[in-house]
């Protein structure tokens, strides 16, 4: 009888523990709905009609039109560009299948642009999705972060970022190619990356945006997986984690020269200067979530690196 009562008690405790956990899907983070854009590139580079995907309510958009994600919080490295009057597209983020639904496939690839006497360039693109907006049309490959409005308003304090993933990670060195100068080989391997960063932001009288880091969950992935890893969790640690066990340098504050951008109260895109760790009990104002087939500087990565992601959610315990 004592054993039966003990077993019943343990089951009751487990039930309370499970019931107390709350899993909140990120909007459109199931990746089952996609916008399909058909954009005809300029005749000088071939005039082909290319398909560019976006995460959002299912629909099709015809023509070279700037896209703004209004219903969905997700933007990506898939863009429509108009450089020196030449319409060009880039697509390194694709819908794919996972189980009975869809997922997102992120891959690192070279975008080649050639027009005799005008343009002849290769641009390395890492497939990336993030919460925020992309400013279209892109007019140059310079200062890529200034074209991305990173982060969404958020005041929660979750314990984990949860998702399913699969990775194909080719061995070998990285490639650097921004379209300016020759393509180069860079020693060292690349990694796929997923992160969630919680910030408390404020704006000064000059329109500059500052931030303190409230919560950090950031991991890099370098090993090919034989199959899907479902329900993977990245723990979110609060306050200054730089002295905590297991801290990695890439989890630190964002360097000023690599700042992400946001739109200030005057409507201008400005860098978000992350200048300090916040108190562990602080309430954030913004959440940044990103998944990418690369982790380094823009235009540097391993060609063929491919990360599949599905079912993005926040977990509260």
TL;DR of this structure?
The protein has 317 residues and is mainly beta. It is 6% helix and 50% strand. The protein is globular.
- Coarse morphology: globular
Task: Tell me the count of domains.
Answer: 1
Going by CATH, the architecture would be Sandwich
Q: How many angstroms separate the termini?
A: 33 Å
* Helicity level: under 10%
The CATH topology annotation reads as Jelly Rolls
Q: In CATH, what is the class?
A: Mainly Beta
Annotation field: number of helices: 1
Radius of gyration: 21 Å
**How many β-strands, per DSSP?**
25
Q: Which structural class do the helices and strands define? A: mainly beta
Unreliable sequence segments = 10-17
Mean pLDDT figure: 91
Series of H and E elements: HEEEEEEEEEEEEEEEEEEEEEEEEE
Q: What percent strand?
A: over 45%
Largest sheet: 10 strands, mixed
